[in-house]
Amino acid sequence: MQHETMPNFLKKRAFLTPERTAVYFNDQTISFKELYEKSYETAGQLKSLGVKKDQYIGVILKNHFDTVVILFALQLMGVKAVILNNRLSKKELVWQVNDSKAAAVILENEFYEISQSVEVPVIKKEDLFAATLEIPEIQEEIHLNDVCTVMYTSGTTGYPKGVLHTYGNHWWSAVGSALNLGYTDRDRWLCSVPLFHISGYSILMKSVIYGMPIILHESFDANKAIGDIKSKHVTIMSVVGTMLFRMVEALEGSQLPNYFRCALLGGGPAPLPLLEVCKAKAVPVFQSYGMTETASQIVTLAPEYSITKLGSAGKPLFPSQIEIILENGGVAQANQAGEIIVKGPNVTMGYLNRPEVSKEKFNQGWFHTGDIGYMDEEGFLYVLDRRSDLIISGGENIYPAEIESVLLAHPDVADAGVTGFNDETWGQVPVAFIVPKKNAKVTEEELIQFCLVSLAKYKIPKSFYFTKELPRNASKKLLRRKLSELVHEGRIQK
Amino acid sequence: MQHETMPNFLKKRAFLTPERTAVYFNDQTISFKELYEKSYETAGQLKSLGVKKDQYIGVILKNHFDTVVILFALQLMGVKAVILNNRLSKKELVWQVNDSKAAAVILENEFYEISQSVEVPVIKKEDLFAATLEIPEIQEEIHLNDVCTVMYTSGTTGYPKGVLHTYGNHWWSAVGSALNLGYTDRDRWLCSVPLFHISGYSILMKSVIYGMPIILHESFDANKAIGDIKSKHVTIMSVVGTMLFRMVEALEGSQLPNYFRCALLGGGPAPLPLLEVCKAKAVPVFQSYGMTETASQIVTLAPEYSITKLGSAGKPLFPSQIEIILENGGVAQANQAGEIIVKGPNVTMGYLNRPEVSKEKFNQGWFHTGDIGYMDEEGFLYVLDRRSDLIISGGENIYPAEIESVLLAHPDVADAGVTGFNDETWGQVPVAFIVPKKNAKVTEEELIQFCLVSLAKYKIPKSFYFTKELPRNASKKLLRRKLSELVHEGRIQK
Hints:
The structure is a homodimer. Chain A is of the alpha/beta class. The first copy, chain A, has two domains: 2-381, 3-Layer(aba) Sandwich (Rossmann fold); 390-488, ANL, C-terminal domain (GMP Synthetase, Chain A, domain 3, 2-Layer Sandwich), CATH 3.30.300. Helices cover 30% and strands 28% of the residues of chain A. The first copy, chain A, is built from 14 helices and 27 strands. In chain A, the strands form five sheets. In chain A, strands 2, 3, 11, 12, 13, 14, 15, 16, 17, 18, 19, 20, 21 and 22 form a 14-stranded mixed β-sheet that branches. In chain A, strands 7-6-4-5-9-10 form a six-stranded mixed β-sheet, with helices on both faces. Chain A has a three-stranded mixed β-sheet with strand order 25-26-27, sandwiched between helices. In chain A, strand 21 and strand 22 form a beta hairpin. In chain A, helix 1 (9-16) crosses helix 7 and helix 8 (222-231) packs across helix 9 (241-251). The longest helix of chain A is centred in the N-terminal third of the chain and has 17 residues, at 32-48. Chains A and B meet through strand 1, helix 1, helix 6 and helix 7 of A and strand 1, helix 1, helix 6 and helix 7 of B.
């Protein structure tokens, strides 16, 4: 169908508004025309290094102007980018590269050590930019059903799966967001969330689709964010609770300028005291609900409801739908909790090389999130529990099962359970419960070191509780929520 | 594909922003929730009158609040609306109703006389609103490839063809426009163009898709338009040249308020003096190029280019593409004239019950407009000639071939040619050239009366030239452009 093809996003944008600024990065400023030319050049270099259309290519890069160029070069060539989380451990990265069957990996120098452990060519960023220039074949048109990116997410089963994002998923996400938040040619979006997350990558896509300048930061720094909001006329910023908290702290007595119109909050609802401070400091908070599988937010709450609908994530974006279903498959009534299922053109078609899991998660176009929630009489969504005890720590998703399987591999551990504890700084942090093997002696420090071999730092449990038994149900399923209750009741101690 | 289904537009909008105003019409104001409820009720009445999903239903209605309700009721039911131009003659309307194979016609009382000439049930608006209420079956989801509306356009061959608009065409048109013009929740669009034209209907669709109030006028009145821009905070208005001209005249010494940010101009480029007056009076003009087949504008020129790119229609909207092709099928160079071909998700899939014409007009997804133009080095489009000597008079399309075939049916006319003359008020007006039959005497007045039986008033030639021969090429094709030259050269006189 004609609905399915569109001009190449970056090329079209460079044609429409060539002189408009695309990216501010530290002292660098680049227009859409220049970004296109630089990405075109890089595509030519990728070609000379053997990278071809339709390949999956791993990418381990930090937030940087060069990363923007490389990601768009891959789009220009019709290459599918497997964008990996650069905070992962070497072991995790190697696993994901292998799982994706990527034909090659592009990375920053500091991640080069993974090259010893993967069997595919590894291209250092510096070598890429120094490579011979060839004339690349540019995809003049893109097909909305073609895969654009892959991002890994762990999900219920503990091992990560690559979420497929088509150009259409990114396009519809950007459009759904524009229809909700509005868009004017005075908008500028601050991106201090990682480009390897959908939260960051989706800002890149909005930039070319809207023709909107973005301000890219290497990482989040509250004072730098506030400074750029003021000096670079930032109107919108993507945040998680921790970031928002630090920003309102850093504001001290001052306020944000009134052109700053949206702090788009992901990663769980903000607590009332934070919302009240935000209100006092003129930080309009749009709470939202989304996941990698929905190509960024699918449900958003406008600031005028943030107090009256406290704790709600809002209503689904125009092109998208949500439903709450009960265990028997029926649709829930208002205020009745059940599994959140979602549908829409922004929702993934499934997982890379996992047809069975993809099939299992979809039913007649509806994606089963595994998250639990309800809708009130007016259709506002309240998320009660992220899927399978998902821990969200400073905006990063942490799956207990993944940490548990590492802990269980330790020779002195008989059983292990992980759950999230509330934390003032990070929202939540992972906490481990360990049943040592009979007569074995194992220390917290030893387990931390053991975990660091396999897991990203942010996944390492912040506390360890040693106990004789873990709460399990009749079918031996670990009852993770019981773990924190046992601590609160004083039945397990450190 | 999942990309292809979406929630019902009006129902979703009423769910998202129930209290927001949808339509201002004279003293009436209605919210999206109320509009949904009223349309739902009307859908129930249509059901009780036998109207069913997937039928084509003719609609002959004027710009009115009721028309908005009826058009949305048809969408709710999944009925395809054949929206007819109420300025057409009875004969033309009957022809189009029959051609569309519509199952019924909904009309205002004043058009009721066509009921004698069509074989399908005719439903008066008053009878519809007085009908029994049944519980309608609402289309909870729409499919972007489903036909939503049909609008007749004459085109090259002289007889009108029904252009099919899918929900997707309307959706993408609205989205492409929002990405170009921007959209904020302070926007309000004044609709004083006919709802039976794509220019008006597309404003309705934008209203529900954006959640934007529209101000609906029964017809264009410069003072009423200016008054509502000031009192109802209108930010955008669709105009044709004549309207713009009258508005700047009516403004006299005053200016429009500075929140008025866009006069979206269709129906051919504005002349320089008009643009200069607009600039002086703070009327930002966005020139555009589009046609029924592209579901409203496909190319737009931002005001900052209106003088430097004088006469240009601008660049294609983000999701759309244009090319200029030569007679040999090759792609034109910059500044080289050729046929304008267009592609994009807003472009029609073809004509109702005319598979052969539809096929002929498309080539690998590109629609051949028949219009002639060129693009400059920067890709700005200049339209030189509308297809087949199309005459655009006060925003209405007039096809010479259609008028010629009526004139040729007169017993005393041996040959007839029609072309457009420039006109200060209307932009262009149709003018006829008549070769009377040997020894026959026929007068201008007689031909006007004869035309009025078959043609809408705006199509009646404003002047008649009587001559002995019409300029034709070797294959006897009428050279319409020669007609005006002959007058200018004084070789034909009235």
